[in-house]
Structures are given as structure tokens and as C-alpha cells.
Design a protein that fits this description.
Chain lengths: ~675, ~675
């Protein structure tokens, strides 16, 4: 759908425009008047004029067409205003009003009603509980941020779920001369959400990079889908609030958003090529530099006039999993010609404390041929010339427009002007080495992003059955399902009584394992419901008697008993593995594989993937710790069989949206085969 | 020894004072003239007057006593000048001159000569290759930093191994109004090193906190010893350059310092209560706030006017392993009385976007009773009043002088004044939440530091033998040593030929294990030198024949063979553990315990401790992943036995400085006992 009228409207109505300067509706009108060149229609029931503009009682009174309505009236009246807008054929509205989902049950009801109306209406809505939206070219500021903090024009879009952070960031950005293309306070996202906004910004020529502050997403899969498309063209950088478990509780209490723990977001961001940052200052640097810098390699060059600066930068590069370029003999020879003999010609290239602007220039001319990102450290010393050095750096940049040059100017007052000069010339300038390194790391992730490919996933054949049961299926109750998708489970028989046991043992043989059968007792071992190592008729008789006693003494709710063959009769070397799936409310199925058995929870070595499983997921798993352990202990085909199982579980989750968790633990992995000896499906 | 004349000299000679303003000796003189009220004696062979002061040809020409000599002449002349200073009874010198160890072999020789002279002289020396030293009260600036960057008086000392970083940091600190008590560029530390400086600063009343930039330490144990004493009184904050392996190479090439990887520094800093920071901006914040803030708890309160700010702060708190205070009903009730009903009364306490200064004040008054660190988030919104809010915060601080209040003022131009106001009133003011959290985390580590106690270590009785061998001792060659200190090893017999084998098998019995004996082949299994599972005379015969063939075919250098009992005859459940020791060049023995056997390197679950092993090391190990795995798999006494082994290895390392590594892997750990089945001592 065409969103051009949202960001480039010919006329804007502001419902709740006010003469009272303390009211939100007054501030928005003021901001609009300052920034917007189109027609403004203040709407107010009680007055004819506001801030010198003719006011109307209702949008229907306005004769001319209206492209965008900004609504800033108490929550109770919003639905009725929206209906009026729809009748007036207004196609976009921004609901500033708070008092919806975020403020309890009554607000929740109001929000539901608005949502229901929008579903069948033609009007598209940002908010409610939004600070508003800003376009810088053509300009309009339909927010209630302080009219004194004037966002500048730039190439970065910013979408925020927190209005307060948004206004603080605009404030700080303006001070630092960072500009924006569009700014959107997404609010409760009753209609237009982050994923929609990504779609709009994908083709916005003014937007070179998109930054997000996100606390929770309603539809994670839609976000991933749209983000993948965007990541093919421009970088997305996200700060996720509520990463920690306690942070998530804080996020929930203030936005009402459903949040899960961090892992699903990490996996989703990684799948979609989204650069994830940890704090506001990082977000800030990306806002400034993401639209211009292009990083296609993880190898970095450091040029420094301070040994210590080189050391610290190298540490940061290593911590970020980047590398230092190894300089060829040719380059070293060229450097020898221009640098003093005390200079260090290996990367980091230490051009010494007395480095002149000329020396910086000559060094940069040589290493710029390598076409790799260059971090240039400048530490002010007695004889240094900050501005002149900045000018030389700028010259080099002019001659190599696409070369990523990242100057780090250490120090205070003496280098401020030089930093400003660089920034005014479109060159980043950082205060500390780790900032430059974080930018390179992030943009490298983006620069080498490829959309997920699912060739192994698509090739895997399986017929996931529809699981109709609404209760959990533990043990042999779920065996049927695993049989159908092709996951090998230990051979076992369900039985109810002594007579059936005698038949069962004839099929199973010794050694065998006896368990209670139950869809409610998840950990049978813990209640004494499992007896291993049964080797004879006599063992079996005793075991069965003992189980029956346990059941009656502890009033265990069982559906009979299970007799299994011993999956490791020959006592062969094996590793216990676990496979599992968990349905994340935002992103769908998370599939996990890790060390199983006794020490699983202590070592907690599990790798997770977000369904569907991509070829990249598989190759990353292969290179993970647990992937390597499996490769070391088993043959190639066993590894592939486990991957096959992961995909089958993923497809099973897909075919049965009611399944909450699948838990196969342990799978005994032998050198040449695998077999699951305990397995559960959680439907409730 | 008394260092008072170093920092409070009555007269300073500057050897190499110069009339040429481009010379280091000119800048130092200028800095001294600007800052120093005592007598200055410029020393220069060729002139009678410099910068209006009478100059002398040699220190011996000065009639009055001299307390401190600053030497800034070419390296070649330094030793002779030092000798002159010694004759003149000057007790302290700062050698600015470069051209020593850091610049190759010739410089190394010059440095050795200086070192040798100082050993028997009375003069104590800072440098060479030092930027100089600064005291702010009573003031002198004996450095060649830019005379325009005037370090302010404050309560933090700064010792730096990098001169360039030091000048950049002073520059930036001055801009940010951060002051210093003393600043020392430690240079090549030919005499006075960081540990000595710590000792001096321990009793310096002007110094409330000590910050360090370190790349390498010559004598790590001395550093730990002195740092522990300092940490009882004032915090030490260290930025370690060269943490990564590649960073260490960079550090080595520019300072000539021996550096090891990071782990030993982490362990040493932790043992000594030193707060370790990762980057310059963190170091900066500690410079400002460490002398004043006292943190004794890991529980934090957040008061915020922006939900998103609260969320991000909570995430940072969780990532730093800190906690949120759980508010009591009483506190919540009090808050109810002063806050609007939409406010969130749980921690983080969200006092809403329209929070007035008054509301901040009332909230802070209530929560300040809890006497826990409070992070106050201020995000500028349309109606907020930054300065007035800062004033209320300052009021609360005045009423509760020891309460750690950490305001975070988000945003740009609109909050600059408020931040300045807070800082001028001695209250920290951060730009981002993670800065406040990092400060709390660091000062909490310091605030709860207790010097190491060695009760278990001291109680452990063992008689470590003197190992005289200079070659490695592998397998049974080292068994003797382990027997003597009391570490159980698998029973085995060394033999040379068939006849001895027959005798050996009578002692060992079946099943058994046959190995080659060698002090040069570390991984016998990899060359086919180990045969397991020998169950009969026939097996043994075949095994021995096969080993002999392997040896001759592959020209293996062996000293015979080893026959071991099978340590797990009964095929009992066990976990393979590894114990090891490694001698770190700076800090002495590192002792490690972890998962052993096949997957040891893949999982890499090993905990390290720095010898001697403290009670805290033991309790931290107990709570580590691997500690918990051992506890889960074995009885209490087995855990204690492994700790006992660790201590014994530590004492063995102590008694034998030539031992480089000890490698006991695996130790088979059964539920009720342990036994080492492979063990090696590396002497070379």
C-alpha cells in the first residue's frame, strides 16, 4: 500500500489542537506551524481560532481534503474521531492519546475497540500512546517534543517504542549534529508496527539506515520477513530494551508489551541481518555513521601516533572477533621509505608521538591501497597538529570516497575542533577506540549479510501428522508421532497388567527398562517411576511389584506401564544428546540441540535455532562447541541424522501450532547410530 | 623508604634544560616555571641563562641541595648524569630520555647499565622513557605535556605505562573538570615500578583512588602484595592494555614489556581487589567518581521519568550481575502517597514523563532511607525542568552525604547545564545508564573486597620434594614426585624387557595397560604408544610385540615400557578430570582444574586460580560450573580430596621454580575416590 501521504501529506488536521500552551495539542500545533508548509486544520470543539489559525469543530467541517489526522484528545473520544476521519476519507492518523493498553483494563478495552474498527476501515493508524512522527524532507514535526529541540535533516530513520528515549535521543543528536530522515514513535502499534515501517522505509530514498528501539514485537515473523528484505538494501540497527529477565519485567510493566527472554531476539536479529547494539551510545554512533560507511571485510588497519592507543584498539578488535590486516612486504617496504626507523611497521602501524600531519598523510596513502577499514588514532602530544592532521585525513577520504576511514581523536579541548571538522566533512570521528571497533563489527555483520537459504530444510522429507490431542503426550503416548516423522525411538510396549506384561516381555527381551506410563508426570525418574537394568524374570517381577507399590503409596496418576528394550544392551561408548523445541510467542519455534543427560543443566551447552532452519544455522551449529563434540564422537552420517531430526521437529512444530514444547532427552548417540530413549510432547 | 622529596621537593634540577622551544627540555622547564614554587636549577653545558633563570653546566656546580633531578638528555649520557646526581646526594630522578629498552639492542644495553648502577646507589629513579610526573598540591609539573593543558587538582592518582595515552587523558580530564592528586608516567620502570608507586600513594592523604594504565608488569607478585594493602584503604582501578593475544604482541613491540595473555592479570586483579575496566571512557568515569562514591551492596534502586530508560538500566544491571532492590510494602505505600496512580511503584520506579522536580525530590526522600545506590534517570520531556531537578537531587545528596546517588541525564543541549551543576556539586552525572552501572559494579567489587585468607592452604600438609631433573618427567618417571606429595596415581611398573615384563605382570595382574616409557613423547596415545584392555597372557604378548614394532618402525626415543593396572577394572561410572599448573612469567603458578579426557579441549571447562590458593578461590570454584559437576558426581570427601591435590600441586610448584608445567590428565573421579592415570612434569 502507498504510504506517501503519511510522510508527505498536503494537509494535516490536528484533533485536540489547543489554546492552552500546557496541552499536548498546543505543542503539536506549534511544532507543525514551525516545520510544515502544507495546510494545517486545527480541530477543537470550543474555539474558532488557535495560534492564529482558523479552527474547526470537526474534521467533517473542513471542506478541503485532509491527508493526515493527528489525534490528541482523551482516549475515550478517540474511536469516534477515527470514525469521523474514515468518513472524511482521511487515510492516515497518528494517535497521540495515551490511556490505552498501557494503563490497565479499561484502556485495554478501548484499544481493542479501536483495533477492531481499523481492521475493516481504510484508515491506517500510528499509535496510540505515540509521541508522534517527524519527516525532515519535506518537513513536518507532528510530535509534542520541545519545539526548541529541532531535529536536523539526515539519512537515518529512527523508530522508537519509547517516547521518552526518543525525545532524549533527538535532543542529544541535534547537539551532535546528527540528522534524521524520519522519526516515528510507534506507540502501542495497534495498526502500523515496526515491520510495516521497515517496508515503508525500504524504498525511501532519503533513508540510508534504519535505527530501532524495541522492547517487544507482536508479530516477530513478519518483522523478520520484512527486515530480511530491508537488509538487502540498507542496514537496520536495533537496541533491544528488556534483554535481561528483570529488564523484561520492567519493559512489560511500562508498555504492556509481551516480552520473552533475549535469545529469540538475538536469533531473529541475526537471521535478518539486523545489527544489535547494547546501549544508547552505540545506537548513537550508528545513527551518525551507518548511512555512509560500507564495511565488507573483518580485517582492519590501525595507524596510530600512540603505542598505548594501538594496544587498546587491538584488544577491542580481538574482543569483537575482527582481525588485523597482515601487511605484505611490499607495503612494509613502502612504509619504510616514509617513516622514521623507530616506527613500528607492523599493524598496528605506530608512526610515533612526533607524527606530523604529513606523516599521517603519507602512511594513509600507502595503506589506503589495501582498501580495508582504517582506524586512525590521534593522541595529542606536544608537537601534534590536530586540525592539520584532520585535514590530511579528509584529503585522503576525498581521494578514496568509499574507503572506510575511522579516526579516533583521543583527548579533550585540543582535539574538539578537529573532530568537528571531520564530522562536518562527513567523516566519522570517535572519542574512544572501542566506538570505532563497534561500528566496524556491526557494519561488517551487515555488509556480509546474505538472506537465509533453506536448501537442506526444503530437501528434508517428512509427513508431520496432525496431533489432535490437547493433553501432553509423554513417552510411548508420543512414540507414534515420532515414528511418523521418522525419529528413531527406543522400542517399547504399553501395558496395563501382569498378563499384558508377560506378552510384552516376549517381544522386548532382556535387558529391559520398566517405567510408569503417564502424560502428567514429566520426570518419572524423580518419583521413582523408572527401573533400569532388568536382566531376568525374577528382576522383572520384583521391579513390577515395586512400581505398583510406588504408584499406590504416592497416589501417582498413571495410564499403565511401559516396557522398553535397553537401548544400549552392548554397553557401547555413547554421548547423551538432547533435542528440543519451544514455541516463542513472538518468533515461533526455537529448536535446540545440546548435551543431554545428567549434566545437561549444569553445563548448559545447547545451541538454538529459529525455525525454519537455514543452511547457515546448520553450518554455524557444525562449528559450535557442541557441534564439534558430536563430530568428534560420531560419524558424518550420525551428524547429518541429528540435523535431519532437528528439521523434522521444526516441521512438526509448524504443522501443529498447539504444540508448546518438544523434549527428546536423552538421545543416545553412538559412533554410528542414534536412538531416543525419552521423549515428550507438551500440548498444554 | 621516604618518598616525600619525590613529590614535595624543595628544589628541582632539570638536566637538559634548553633554550630551543622545540626541545623536550624546554617544555619541561616551562611547565615547571608555571607550576612550581620551589627552586629550579636548569642544567645545560652551553649556556648561562634559560627562560630568565640562571643555568649551570653540571649539578655539581649548584651550591644548594637538590631534591629531584629531571633528566632529558640523549640516552647515551644518562648514566654519567645519574652518577653526578648520586655524588650530589640527589635522592630522586625522573629520566625522560627515550632510546632505552624500547628501541632495540643498543638501548637495552644502556638500560642494563643504568639498572646495575641504581642497584647499589642511593638515588631512586622513575623512567627512563617517561613523560614525567605531576603533583597538584604542592604543585609541580615535570612533564613535557602541552603547557596549555593544565591538569587540575583532585583526589585521583594516575599511573600510566603509555605516555601518549597519559597526555590524551589529562587533556580530556581537564575539559571535563576532572582533577588529579598525582600523575606518573612510569616509563620503562628501571627502578620505581607500579607496585612501589602504590606503596607511596597508600599513605598519600591527597589520593582517594588510584587509576592505572598497565601493559605489562615485571614483578606481578610484588604488585599483588602491595595492591592488597592499598585495596584495604582506597580503590585501585586498572585498564590493562594488551589483553588479547594480538593486543599483547602490539604491546610488546612498543614497550618491550613481557606480556602474557589476559587470564593471569584477571586473576591477579581479582585477588588484589583491583577494579578492572575495559576501555578508556570507563577509566575516565572512575577517575572522577571513585574517590567519593562508596558502594557496599549489589542492590540498586532506579528512579526514572522514562520507562525505556528504566528498562535499559535494568538490562545493564542484570548484565553486570547486580540486582534490583525489592521494595517493601512500607516503601510502596509511602510512594503511593506522593506519586500519580499511573506511576510504576516497583523498582524501577517510573515517576512518569511529566515528573516535576518536586516529584523527584519526594521519591528520592522515600527511597534514600533504604541506603542503597540510586540511579536517577532524567529524560528531558516537554514539561521537564533539568536544572531544578538537578538542584533537588543535590539537596537530597546534601542531606545524605554517604548515599550513592548516580544521576543519568539523557539528552543533549537541554541537560548540559544540569549535568555541570551536579558535577560542580560533587555529584556524578552520567550520559548513559551503563556508565552508572559500571561504576556501581566496580566500586561494589572494591567495597566488598577482603584480603585473601589461606586457611585451607596453610592446613594442607605435604612435603614437596626438590625435583633435581632438568628434563621432563612423564608417566612413571614422575610418579615418585606425586607419591611424595600425596597424589594417588595408577599403580604401574617400569620395565625394559620380556623378563622384567613377566615379573611386572605378576605384580599388576589383569586387566592392565601397556605404554611406552618416555620423557620426550608427551602424547603417547597419538604415536600408538598405549595399549588398553589387556586381559590375558596372550593379549599381553601381542601387545608387547606390537609396541616394540611401533617403536622400531617409527624410531621412537623411549626409556623402556610401563605396565599399569587398569584403574577402572570394575567398569564403574566415572568422570574424567584434569588438574594442571602453569608458571606465569609475571604472577607465578596458575593452577587449573577442569573436565578432562577426550572432550576437555572442546568444552574447555577449566577453572584457574593463582597460587597460593585462597579460601575464596576454593569457594568460587565450588560454585563454578565444573565445581558443581564434580559435586553432583562425587561425594563431599572426593571434592575435598581434589582441592587438596590442587594445593599440593601449588606447593610443589612453589618448591621447584624450574617446573614449568604440571599436567595430570585424566584423573578418574569415581563417586567415592579419585586416581590419576596419566601425569607429567615439564621442567623444560
Amino acid at each position: 500500500m502507498d504510504f506517501s501521504k503519511l510522510f508527505n501529506p498536503e494537509s494535516i488536521a490536528i484533533v485536540g489542537a489547543s489554546r492552552d500552551p500546557s496541552k499536548v495539542g498546543s505543542v503539536i500545533l506549534k511544532n507543525l506551524r514551525i516545520t510544515y508548509r502544507g495546510k494545517i486544520f486545527p480541530i477543537n470543539l470550543n474555539t474558532d481560532e488557535i495560534q492564529g489559525l482558523k479552527a474547526y469543530r470537526k474534521v467533517s467541517e473542513v471542506k478541503e481534503p485532509i491527508d493526515l489526522a493527528v489525534i490528541a484528545i482523551p482516549a475515550e473520544g478517540v474511536l469516534s474521531v477515527l470514525k469521523g476521519c474514515e468518513r472524511k476519507k482521511i487515510r492516515f492518523a497518528i494517535i497521540i492519546s495515551a490511556g490505552f493498553k498501557e494503563s490497565g483494563n479499561a484502556g485495554m478495552k478501548l484499544e481493542e475497540d479501536v483495533k477492531k474498527f481499523i481492521k475493516t476501515a481504510k484508515i491506517r493508524v500510528i499509535g496510540p500512546n505515540s509521541l508522534g512522527a517527524i519527516n525532515t524532507s519535506p518537513a513536518y514535526n507532528a510530535t509534542f517534543i520541545d519545539p526548541n529541540s529541532k531535529p536536523m535533516e539526515g539519512n537515518t530513520a529512527f523508530i522508537s517504542q519509547s517516547g521518552a528515549l526518543l525525545s532524549a535521543i533527538i535532543d542529544d543528536a541535534t547537539l551532535e549534529k546528527i540528522g534524521f530522515s524520519k522519526i516515528i514513535s510507534i506507540g502501542n502499534a495497534v495498526d502500523i508496527d515496526e515491520a510495516d515501517m521497515l517496508n515503508v522505509l525500504l524504498n525511501d530514498e532519503k533513508t540510508g539506515a534504519i535505527t530501532l528501539y524495541v522492547e517487544g514485537l507482536e508479530d516477530g515473523q513478519k518483522f523478520i520477513k520484512n527486515a530480511i528484505e530491508v537488509s538487502k538494501k540498507k542496514p537496520i540497527i536495533a537496541l533491544k530494551g528488556g534483554k535481561s529477565r528483570i529488564g523484561a519485567v520492567a519493559a512489560e510493566s511500562h508498555t504492556g508489551a509481551l516480552t520473552d527472554n533475549n535469545m529469540s531476539y538475538d536469533l531473529a536479529f541475526s537471521k535478518a541481518g539486523v545489527i544489535s547494539v547494547d546501549n544508547i551510545d552505540d545506537l548513537f554512533n550508528f545513527m551518525r555513521d551507518a548511512p555512509t560507511l560500507k564495511i565488507k571485510t573483518d580485517e582492519v588497519i590501525i595507524v596510530t601516533n600512540a603505542g598505548g592507543g594501538g594496544v587498546i584498539t587491538t584488544d577491542a578488535i580481538s574482543a569483537a572477533n575482527l582481525k588485523l590486516v597482515k601487511l605484505s612486504n611490499n607495503i612494509v617496504n613502502e612504509l619504510t621509505k616514509v617513516l622514521p626507523k623507530e616506527a613500528s611497521l607492523h599493524n598496528p602501524i605506530d608512526i610515533l608521538g612526533d607524527a606530523t600531519p604529513e606523516r599521517y598523510k603519507e602512511t594513509l596513502e600507502i595503506v589506503s591501497k589495501l582498501n580495508k577499514p582504517i582506524i586512525v588514532i590521534f593522541s595529542p602530544q606536544e608537537t601534534s597538529l590536530p586540525i592539520e592532521t584532520a585535514k590530511e585525513i579528509s584529503e585522503i577520504q576525498m581521494q578514496n570516497r568509499d574507503l572506510p576511514i575511522l579516526p579516533v581523536f583521543l583527548g579533550g579541548a585540543r582535539i574538539e575542533k578537529a573532530k568537528r571538522f571531520l564530522r562536518e566533512n562527513g567523516i566519522p570521528a570517535y572519542s574512544y577506540p572501542n566506538e570505532a571497533v563497534d561500528i566496524i563489527r556491526g557494519l561488517y555483520i551487515y555488509g556480509t549479510f546474505t538472506p537465509p537459504v533453506y536448501s537442506t530444510y526444503d530437501k528434508t522429507r517428512t509427513k508431520p501428522p496432525k496431533v489432535s490431542s490437547k493433553e501432553n503426550l509423554f513417552g510411548l503416548h508420543s512414540k507414534d508421532v515420532f515414528d511418523k516423522i521418522g525419529i528413531k525411538t527406543a522400542y517399547g510396549v504399553l501395558f496395563k497388567n501382569e498378563t499384558e506384561l508377560q506378552k510384552a516381555i516376549k517381544k522386548i527381551g532382556y535387558p529391559c527398562v520398566l517405567k510408569i506410563a503417564s502424560n502428567t508426570i514429566a520426570h518419572k525418574g524423580e518419583v521413582g517411576g523408572v527401573i533400569l537394568g532388568i536382566k531376568s524374570d525374577e528382576d522383572l517381577k520384583k521391579a513390577f511389584a515395586s512400581l505398583k507399590t510406588k504408584v499406590s503409596e504416592n497416589h501417582l496418576k498413571i495410564d499403565g506401564y511401559e516396557l522398553y528394550e535397553d537401548a544400549n544392551k552392548e554397553n557401547r561408548q555413547n554421548i547423551e544428546i538432547l533435542l528440543g523445541a519451544h514455541r516463542d510467542p513472538q518468533f515461533g519455534a526455537l529448536i535446540g540441540i545440546g548435551l543431554g543427560g545428567e549434566y545437561a543443566t549444569l553445563l548448559n551447552e545447547t545451541e538454538f535455532m529459529l525455525a525454519p532452519i537455514s543452511d547457515k544455522d546448520i553450518s554455524e551449529f557444525r562449528n559450535s562447541k557442541i557441534g564439534k563434540i558430536i563430530s568428534a564422537a560420531a560419524k558424518h552420517k550420525v551428524f547429518d541424522e541429528l540435523i535431519d531430526y532437528l528439521i523434522k521437529i521444526s516441521k512438526l512444530m509448524d504443522a501443529n501450532p498447539q504444540i508448546k514444547n518438544i523434549d527428546i532427552n536423552p538421545i543416545m548417540m553412538f559412533e554410528d547410530s542414534v536412538i531416543a530413549t525419552d521423549f515428550k510432547i507438551y500440548n498444554s
